[in-house]
Amino acid sequence: MLDRRTLTASVPVATLPPFSQEDVLALLGWRREAQEIVGWVKPDNFTQPEGVGPIDYRTIATEALQFWEQFKSPPADHLYDLVLQRVPDAARPQWMQILLGLQELAPRLNLAYVTDRLHRFLYQADLKSRIYQSLRSLQSGDLERAEEVLTARTGIEDRGSALSLSDTGALEQYLVQRQQDQFLSGIPDLDKWHIAPARKELYLVVAPAKRGKSWWLVHIAKFALMARARVLHITVEMRKEQTLQRYIQALTGASKRPEALHRLLRLEKNESHIVRGVHTETLEKRPGLILPGGKLDAAVVARVQALAGRMDLQIQEYPTSSLTIGQMESYLDWLERVKRFVPDMVIIDYGDKFKVDSSNLRIEIGAVFEGIRRVGQERNMAMVTATQSNRASARARVVRYDDVAEDYSKVMTADWILTLSQTEAEKSLGAARVRVTGRDEADGRTVLITQNYALGQFCLDSAILPDDWETLLSAHVPETDDGKVG
Question: Domain residues for 51?
Answer without folding.
Answer: 1-157
